[in-house]
Specification:
The chain is of the alpha/beta class. Helix content is 38%, strand content 20%. α3 links the parallel β1 and β2. It is globular and about 40 Å long.
Length: 167
């Protein structure tokens, strides 16, 4: 999207939702991050998806399968939003997850996990990992755990996209 007017006119959800500042920031992040995506990129991990708007950009425009890790009190928002936006999407919710393989992830459009479940993500399966504006709210130990996760689960040459304040 060249500018906010282009976003308002051609965003795939413009007929259902207003283009808010949150949508503009998600579009900006998607445009910025997608410029560097490895080719082909099939699986995106988003840590702290919040409302799920950025995940909707990666899924719709990037045609990526999404693995979303978020807190139990927050994951319900992204799960509900994404299922309403993509009613035919194949979804795995946290209570349905046992073990995961890359094939399992590729069979689903969205796989939702709680922080306590990050150990089930297999090594070297994520093409791009994303975090925007939530690591700044975590402890140093939590941030380290997620950085270790990204290093473990990313494919060689995978991309780590991170936009957070430094405090």
């Amino acid at each position: 999207f060249a500018n906010s007017l282009a976003l308002r006119n051609s965003w795939f959800l413009a007929d259902r939702y207003m283009v808010t500042s949150q949508v503009c920031v998600a579009a900006y992040h998607f445009q910025l991050f997608s410029h560097f995506l490895p080719k082909p990129a099939a699986v995106c991990l988003e840590i702290g998806a919040g409302s799920g708007i950025l995940a909707s950009f990666f899924h719709h425009y990037g045609r990526m399968k999404m693995v979303i890790v978020d807190l139990p009190e927050t994951i319900v928002f992204s799960a509900a939003f994404l299922k309403s936006v993509f009613p035919d999407a194949r979804v795995t919710l946290p209570h349905e997850v046992g073990t995961l393989s890359r094939a399992d992830i590729l069979e689903q459009d969205f796989t939702f996990l709680l922080p306590s479940q990050i150990g089930v993500i297999p090594d070297s399966v994520i093409d791009v990992a994303v975090n925007t504006f939530s690591m700044q709210e975590m402890t140093h130990e939590q941030v380290k755990a997620y950085i270790d996760l990204v290093q473990r689960v990313s494919v060689p040459g995978g991309l780590w996209c991170n936009d957070n304040r430094i405090e």
